[in-house]
Amino acid sequence: MFTGLIEAVGTIGAVTPHPAGMRLRVKTALAGELTDGESVAVNGVCLTATASRDGEMHADIGPETARLTTLGGLKAGQRVNLERAMRADARFGGHVVQGHVDGAGVIRAIREDGDSHWLAIDFPEALAAYLIRKGSVAVDGVSLTVAALGQGTFDVMIIPFTWSHTSLSALTPGDRVNLECDMVGKYVARMLELRGDRGSGIWDPRSPIPGPK
């Protein structure tokens, strides 16, 4: 479990293909604090630190993760957001992030607003039921608020601190980003699906919620 509050920005040292998928080496100041087997979110994807030495964290990426997230396209030198799993005795910030990416979005536009920045992100239709205005969404592992929501696109504002302390500042229009929707919305949609309230399509969150049957 994560919070979407990025602890450090690492740099990809190498991406090596192997029969089970891919192997990552990430240069990070967190390496000395990690233990083998520890969970670390890399651009919002929960990975297992298989080794940590010489200022680098090693992690394996399975074929399914490589296909469904942006991790399959990582290159040496690329900056990535890192967050260790949340401690049970720590203050909870951000929102509940599982590190289980729901889909990849595409940066439509980036615009400045004073010292802040707006990101317009196109998202897959399958995620439409899980995004609401003023709701939470993790973008490359960063906990953000949906400020505007349209047909197939949403906007988030990035404050100066987040812009300078995450890899979001390296994004350009056309880049793909990992999206994880708020877990609460996914549970509600699943409950309605099992009750038969979604029919054959995606439940429309603007529709009234049916009463008990």
Instruction: Return the average pLDDT rounded to an integer.
Output: 90
Trace the largest sheet across and list its strands.
10-9-13-7-8-12-11
Count every beta strand, where a strand is a DSSP E run of 2 or more residues. Answer: 13
The CA-CA distance between the termini, in Å, is 34 Å
Structure description:
The chain is mainly β and 213 residues long. Helices cover 11% and strands 39% of the residues. The strands form 2 sheets. Strands 10-9-13-7-8-12-11 form a 7-stranded antiparallel β-sheet. A 6-stranded antiparallel beta barrel has the order 1-2-5-4-3-6. The two termini are 34 Å apart. It folds into 2 domains: 8-84, Elongation Factor Tu (Ef-tu), domain 3, CATH 2.40.30.20; 103-190, Beta Barrel (Elongation Factor Tu (Ef-tu), domain 3), CATH 2.40.30. The chain has 3 helices and 13 strands.
Task: Give the topology.
Layout (H helix, E strand, L loop, with lengths): L7 E11 L2 E7 L11 E4 L2 E9 L2 E6 L1 H6 L10 E6 L18 E11 L2 E7 L13 E4 L2 E4 L2 E3 L2 E6 L1 H6 L10 E6 L1 H12 L19
Antiparallel strand pairs: 1-2, 1-6, 2-5, 3-4, 3-6, 4-5, 7-8, 7-13, 8-12, 9-10, 9-13, 11-12
